[in-house]
Specification:
Oligomer: single chain
Structural class: alpha/beta
Order of helices and strands: HHEHEHEHEHEEHHHHHEEEHEEHHEE
Distance between the termini: 79 Å
Number of helices: 14
Strand content: 15-25%
Strand order of the largest sheet: 3-2-1-4-5-6-7-8
Length: 448
């Protein structure tokens, strides 16, 4: 028995990575080297450390990924403990990302997880470029749109507008709503990106203001009264931040007063968060199922042991069990995953004038833009120290700041006003300078 080969800790993973198959990807090369490379070189970023994010971290660590990062801006609350299994009562008030990383590393030997307790917008584009795959466990459309734009910003196109495979940053996105969920694979330039299928997400439920102000009938009406009407009356000019605990507590307190006035039960702090943030209660089993699908697709992308999902899986466990895969089509005119918004400029246009133009551009409508070029900050709106460091560039010609290259890609991050809604977004801009040798004049909207 002493001469027998010991069982590998990765014996289940070995069945996928060490043997050939009939449904493998075109670049699949089975063997021990593939398994070892996966552990040593593959880097995956998990965005979100909530109910789905906790499951994703655990599943990815147990699937052979040893180099993981996790980013989340939230702290642990008591209401998280029923489904976010990595957290304990003594963790309440601590950053989710830090506690989740610590717990998984305690349970899975050899894995290294780097936590980031911050907003996703606080990281520059270069931070995201270090990862091979981005796995999303988010509950926000705005956050998904932002990460989608970041991943698509790395995508490059050749002269025939064909995407370059080496520049693709794959994403695996999961989401749950009660007993329902989805898992999808996004390969920028190949599959539809999040923006291509934004119509899949239903609009948020809205209540008539007259009902909120005069005849509230349930707890949600009281909460929305405090959120939409009372807040503006008391804090005129001050924007409500749903991620600020003090703001949320104020809305909750006002909603309780409103409910008591009309004899309406059911206003709780967790219900207030759910109404204001449009959060549907999460169920642990749904999170586990969707996370398993996302982890499997991440492993497929990294190793090629099987063809990936094409490209949107839906799960419904409300009555029995129903799963379905739908292949959506990429929008060839998408502003996010396409070649970029073409902008023609004179070589004399300054960076300040260029930023002003973005606000008026019909396809962009972007205000307070920060501009980066090949990883270099040309101008940053925040933090103040970076704004001061880059302020002197505002009066310089953009052509000079782009090293006098007649045609190249810029990235702009700012506030996008779309359908009377403001959100933070990132856009890829294909800038062409007129009158430069080798560049023909083009008729493009937004030119100088």
């Amino acid at each position: 028995m002493s001469d027998a080969t010991p069982l590998s800790k990765s014996r289940d993973l070995d069945k996928l990575l060490l043997r050939p198959g009939n449904l493998v990807g075109p670049n699949f090369d089975p063997g021990v080297q593939l398994r070892d490379d996966l552990k040593e070189y593959a880097r995956v970023l998990v965005v979100g450390a909530g109910g789905l994010g906790c499951e994703l971290l655990k599943d990815l660590a147990l699937s052979g990924f040893k180099n993981l990062d996790v980013i989340d801006m939230d702290r642990i609350e008591v209401t998280n403990l029923n489904r976010q299994f990595l957290f304990r009562l003594e963790d309440v008030g601590k950053p989710k990302a830090e506690v989740a990383a610590k717990r998984v590393m305690e349970r899975v030997s050899g894995v290294n997880i780097v936590p980031h307790f911050c907003r996703i917008e606080d990281k520059d584009i270069e931070f995201y470029s270090d990862f091979n795959i981005i796995a999303l466990g988010l509950d926000s459309i705005e956050a998904r749109s932002y990460i989608n734009a970041v991943a698509c910003s790395f995508l490059e196109y050749d002269s025939d507008d064909n995407p370059r495979e080496e520049s693709m940053k794959p994403m695996v996105d999961g989401g749950t709503e009660g007993f329902k969920g989805h898992a999808r694979v996004i390969v920028p330039g190949v599959t539809p990106c999040f923006e291509c299928t934004i119509w899949l997400f239903p609009p948020q439920v809205k209540f008539p203001l007259c009902t909120l102000a005069e005849t509230p009938r349930n707890a949600a009406h009281c909460i929305e009264y405090a959120h939409l009407i009372k807040w503006d009356e008391v804090h005129s000019g001050k924007a409500f931040d749903p991620d600020n605990p003090d703001h949320m507590k104020w809305v909750y307190d006002e909603a309780v007063k409103r409910a008591e006035l009309f004899g309406i039960p059911g206003v709780t702090y967790s219900h207030t968060q759910g109404v204001v943030k449009n959060i549907i209660p999460a169920i642990a089993s749904t999170n586990a199922i969707i996370s398993a699908a996302c982890a499997l697709e991440t492993l497929k992308i990294a190793s090629g042991f099987s063809k990936t999902l094409s490209n949107y899986l839906t799960y419904n466990g409300v009555e029995g069990l129903h799963t379905k895969v739908t292949e959506f089509v990429k929008d060839k005119d998408c502003l996010v995953c396409g070649p970029g918004v073409l902008i023609e400029l004179d070589a004399t246009v300054t960076l300040r004038k260029f930023i002003d133009m973005l606000e008026e551009h019909p396809k962009l409508l972007m205000s307070k833009a920060s501009i980066t070029y090949r990883g270099k900050n040309l101008y940053m709106q925040a933090p103040p120290i970076l704004e001061e460091m880059t302020r002197s560039n505002l009066n310089l010609p953009l052509y000079d700041l782009m090293d006098k290259i007649p045609k190249d890609i810029l990235h702009a991050t700012g506030t996008i006003n779309k359908d009377n809604k403001k959100s933070t977004g990132l856009r890829k801009l294909d800038v062409v300078f007129k009158g430069i040798d080798g560049v023909a004049d083009m008729d493009m909207a937004g030119g100088a």
